[in-house]
Write a structure and sequence with these properties.
Blueprint lengths: L1 E11 L5 E12 L2 E6 L2 E17 L10 E16 L2 E9 L1
Antiparallel strand pairs: 1-2, 2-4, 3-4, 4-5, 5-6
């Protein structure tokens, strides 16, 4: 499980230019599978993604102000064509 928490501030026109402080929290529970063959490695993760955004004071114009849950999938590809080179690719979809 990975958890992030961030804070941000801005002035809201909907609140007469008052300062608003926002907090962003996110947690993921992503079990995964690893497939390896010679110099190729593929990792696939899939599971629950939960996010919560809160503002203080409450800003009705902030569309992020809510909690939601979704399914997230992450794919990580790693390939070593020669001992001196490596190719990597990542993709994430929620």
């Amino acid at each position: 499980m990975v958890t992030w928490c961030g804070r941000y501030s801005y002035r809201s026109g909907a609140l007469d230019n008052a300062w608003v402080t926002g907090t962003d929290e996110e947690a993921q529970l992503l079990p995964g599978w690893r497939f390896k063959r010679d110099r190729l490695e593929l990792k696939v993760f899939a599971g629950l993604d939960i996010k919560n955004d809160v503002t203080s004071p409450y800003d009705p114009s902030n569309r992020l102000h809510r909690a939601f849950a979704a399914i997230r999938t992450i794919v990580n590809l790693w390939f070593e064509p020669t001992p001196a080179t490596m190719l990597a690719a990542d993709a994430s979809l929620t």
